Amino acid sequence: MAAADDVVAEHPFVVAHRGASFDRPEHTLAAYDLALQEGADGVECDVRLTSDGHLVCVHDRRVDRTSNGVGLVSEMTLSQLQGFDYGSWHGRPAGPPEALTVPETGLLTLDALVALVLDWQRPVKIFIETKHPVRYGALVERKVLELLDRFGIASPASATRSRAVVMSFSAAAVWRIRRAAPLLPTVLLGSAARYLGGSAATTVGATAIGPSIATLREHPELVDHAAARGRALYCWTVDRDDDVDLCRDLGVAWIATNQPARTKARLRAG
């Protein structure tokens, strides 16, 4: 991740939260393709393991909210999960009818998302959040690192040049990544200012902290505290104009938003 001073010199970088998830179904190819077209500087995804060991982009433990299926992600195979529709629930069209194909709103694997991002015509970072607690524990981080290694991005020349960032609300998960891949940037996520502003991030070696926008509104000092310790700040989920302005004025490095085009336009206007 870029140093905080470098970011302030321009403006915060915009990360598409689950893709352009206001306009397209979250965690689908349609959502990420739109986010990239809209100029997102990074994309964010949540990953879980299927029962047969595949990393899939799904936020919830269950598929009930975001598909026409029912059940736990961890108890189903990749093939079973691919049988569900992940687009019709959204209420907004996933694209013009003539362009819509099943894969655009089908289950998205992390492999497919990383390939999409790396093949894009400009450098884009991918922020991968590992979900915990899960039945597979540390296996999630191991699988993520194995996948990044296959794509040649698990050991970047430096944190600044890294194409991938791994995040988690679990301090143990962040520590596992830092121990196995010390140059890979990490974000310790949280909603408690005392937790993020304390020693937790130092203990696990996180290169950034990630408060919610609600936490940042109440504790704007987190940005300066992080910078004083050599860390950037990643804020989620920033959609309101006044919150975008706040993040810009405070010097937040990365803004996660469901509306990347609108957020980038707001930053340019400011």
Automatic annotation (TrEMBL):
Domain GP-PDE: from-to ranges: 12-267
CDD domains: GDPD_like_2
GO biological process, one term: lipid metabolic process
Origin: domain of life: Bacteria
GO MF term set: phosphoric diester hydrolase activity
InterPro entries reported in the protein's UniProt record: GP_PDE_dom, PLC-like_Pdiesterase_TIM-brl
Protein name: Glycerophosphodiester phosphodiesterase
Native source species: Mycolicibacter kumamotonensis
Native organism taxonomy: Bacteria, Bacillati, Actinomycetota, Actinomycetes, Mycobacteriales
